[in-house]
């Protein structure tokens, strides 16, 4: 088992892009937009690989019958082979991996949930958006410095290396309440014409529809710049699923999503 050097990351892009699941966050690691970790069974011709994003999302891909890799992986999840400072949320493909991962669940090293991939429909989006009162709150284009100073569960500084990098590649919109940032929708990753949306609303402002306004503004930006809005979330996160439906997204795929406590 090896931790790949960054100059080797490019060899994994092609097999990653063939997967039928949303891999934009993993692409951010391989494209060096963030400082993650990549482990593989070979430096030159990896057949099995594991990509860890600094936010905590991870991807396990390739052959599932490499006993040496699987032994290392078990030790990794058990905290024996590599220090993990954060919980991880793992997706695996192909489904052969579920045999090994369900063993981890049985040993209480992992908890299985479901991850939903969704597809955007512009017509559905505009059905709601055109009828929405957008004058009640001010929505601003978020300066990169403001985005990087925000704290919360899902925030921009976890998905980009520097404010300058985000300003060059990303986009965000913030809803202001009494002049203060209340809800921010931001590009969590951007590759090709795909822009994945992240959203964070301060607890004291939740339940007012502010997340919808921030996300709708970012989606409008995407449509005006020939970008495809992308949304994925944990199935158990009903607030995120309900918001995605209001924004014009519909479910296209649901896969196991393994929570690996730190």
What does this structure look like?
The protein is an alpha+beta fold and 262 residues long. The protein folds into 2 domains: 108 residues, Aminopeptidase (3-Layer(aba) Sandwich); 137 residues, Aminopeptidase (3-Layer(aba) Sandwich), CATH 3.40.630.30. It has 9 helices and 12 strands. β4, α3 and β5 form a beta-alpha-beta unit. The longest helix has 15 residues.
Q: What distance separates the N and C termini?
A: 21 Å
Q: How would you write the strand order of the largest sheet? A: 1-2-3-4-5-12-6-11-10-9-8-7
Structural class: alpha+beta
Tally of contiguous helical segments: 9
CATH superfamily membership of the largest domain, which one? Gcn5-related N-acetyltransferase (GNAT)
Radius of gyration: 19 Å
CATH architecture of the largest domain: 3-Layer(aba) Sandwich
CATH topology of the largest domain: Aminopeptidase
Helix content: 25-40%
Mean pLDDT: 95
Detail the poorly predicted runs: none
Can you tell me the number of structural domains? Answer: 2
- Which sheet architecture does the biggest sheet show? 12 strands, mixed
Question: Mind sketching the topology for me?
Answer:
Elements: E1 2-3, H1 13-17, H2 24-30, E2 37-40, E3 48-52, E4 57-62, H3 67-77, E5 88-93, H4 97-106, E6 111-120, H5 122-129, E7 138-141, H6 144-148, H7 163-169, E8 172-177, E9 180-191, E10 194-201, H8 210-224, E11 228-234, H9 238-246, E12 249-260
Parallel strand pairs: 4-5, 10-11
Antiparallel strand pairs: 1-2, 2-3, 3-4, 5-12, 6-11, 6-12, 7-8, 8-9, 9-10
